[in-house]
Design a protein that fits this description.
The chain is an alpha/beta fold. It has 11 helices and 16 strands. The chain has an 8-stranded mixed β-sheet with strand order 6-16-15-10-11-12-13-9. The longest helix is centred in the C-terminal third of the chain and has 22 residues. The radius of gyration is 19 Å and the shape is globular.
Length: 349
Amino acid sequence: MTHELVHPPKARPGDRIAVLSPSFAAAGAFPELHEQAMRRLTEVTGLIPVEYPTTRQVGATAEARAADVNAAFADPEIRGILAVVGGDDQITVIPHLDADLARADPKPFLGTSDNTNLHHWLWENGVASFYGGSSQVHLGPGPGVDEIHARSLRAALLTGERLEITEPGESEDIGVDWADPRALESFGEREPTGPWSWYGPARSVSGPAWGGCVEVIEWILTAGRFPFAPDVLQGGVLLIETSEELLPAVNVARIVRSLGERGLVGAVDAVLLARPPVSDFTRRPPADERARLRDEQRDAVVEVVARYNAEAVVCVGVPFGHTRPQWILPHGGTITVDGAERRIFADYR
């Protein structure tokens, strides 16, 4: 990858971390869950959460949400930024952000889903970030914080260590409805997981990661916010995951096909496809149907990747994105995908 990125310095316990709602203000809609998340954030990291005017303001304008992001980057006492959750209109926030502030004092930014917009904005402006870490999804709900999430959260914000990305052995597509008091103490319906699926040559590759929620990547490219030639991703690792909107496999494959036509799939050395959610609050197919839907997405994406890049090492089923438990992964940082040993390592520097 030829695009040079700054890796923001790590925070230390006792430092302040901005907690923002650049998309949906779930913190305001479900305050008890948010407050539990803030307590757990301090317990897990030692950092002190700082809220901003729109953190709990449901329906805040794009300009107001952008002002909070700018203020967090401008404040020298803030040493990290965590998004509460995703949403569906962060694309309208991006034009109001001040890149000079982010470049002047880069800070680790964590978020998933619609926050792909902010990850790509930071990446475009030369700042690495971390894909994952929505507090309303991974810190607030349930009886506690999943171990793999806590480990990668600390690595991203505090330690900068290198971790092996492993399979936790269980997964849930969606948790308990946040309006239900049981969400404070209960996980969603979890099921056992199997081994990941590997494709492509049996070789080990390492490179900077780029990607995110594939539906949002499509929006970003449509808006013309990827002003680079494909070789900017040369030797990188493409991260692909899908949202709770449960996009059919054929639609996911079409987006990946467009990335192939753009030359982006052909540029990378590896592709990580996350375990996708295949159920929501209104639809939970039987277990065999859920497995079939995951297999359909896997087969469709693998076929498209092979068409554009037969030499890419591909791993399917990695727990990042929209399922839980979830690893936070570097965006711009180095990931090693070993197709021979069938292992994955991430550098959180």
